Amino acid sequence: MAKLGKRTRAAREAFAGKEDISIEEAVSLIKANANAKFDETVEIAMNLGVDTRHADQMVRGVIGLPNGTGKTMRVAVFARGPKAEEAQAAGADIVGAEDLMETIQSGTIEFDRCIATPDMMPIVGRLGKILGPRNLMPNPKVGTVTMDVAQAVKDAKGGQVQFRAEKGGVVHAGVGKVSFDEAKLVENVKAFIGAVAKAKPTGAKGTYMKKISLSSTMGPGVTLDVATATAE
């Protein structure tokens, strides 16, 4: 068994015995022990009591975090003509149609969010097997299939986070950077939990939120007290 590094051991010791704590305590603990050489992302993982194999138990949505994500979002837009120009003016990193489809099919995916006008969906639909597993497929339910491409680009660039329950009912997302003030991170975490709570599907039975944990990119995770975390 490989030996743990000094930094890893110290972090694990700091987290030992800390579980089912408040959001405020978790954020403070994570910030105090995040010592990587880069600005780590604060990540949330939520285990939900849903079976994503059933359509009426799928959880997905979008939330504009009040204090942004701290991440530079690269946005691709499928559009033509005036709508393509709107997207470029709004700050889209990549804009195209068939040419963009061919680029993606070749294996080049240099974006974090994909937006499309409705008329582009026959083209985008051919990319389902590539974009779908990466949670990049445009979807009207989260505002990424829209005629208002300028607003969609601004939202994506401004700290909007999409979420979707993966296999096993797990929702995972980045909710800020460890360099953020504690109060801002707490506010972001609460906003994200609230959005997932509101997205509870009609088919969900029993306990919806089973476990919530926070971590930094390189640090251990800590579980939150679900009752208090979802009380607000």
Distance between the termini: 43 Å
Residues in helix, %: 25-40%
What is the alpha-carbon Rg in Å? 19 Å
Question: How many separate helices?
Answer: 9
Descriptive account of the structure:
The chain is of the alpha/beta class and 232 residues long. Helices cover 33% and strands 21% of the residues. It contains nine helices and nine strands. It has helices spanning 6-15, 23-33, 81-90, 98-105, 121-124, 128-131, 149-157, 182-198, 226-229; strands at residues 41-48, 60-64, 75-78, 94-96, 113-116, 160-164, 170-177, 209-216, 221-223. The chain has a four-stranded antiparallel β-sheet with strand order 7-1-8-9, with helices on one face. Strands 4-3-5 form a three-stranded parallel β-sheet, sandwiched between helices. A two-stranded antiparallel sheet has the order 2-6. Strand 3, helix 3 (81-90) and strand 4 (94-96) form a beta-alpha-beta unit. The longest helix is centred in the last third of the chain and has 17 residues, at 182-198. The protein is globular and about 55 Å long. The model has no long low-confidence stretch (mean pLDDT 91).
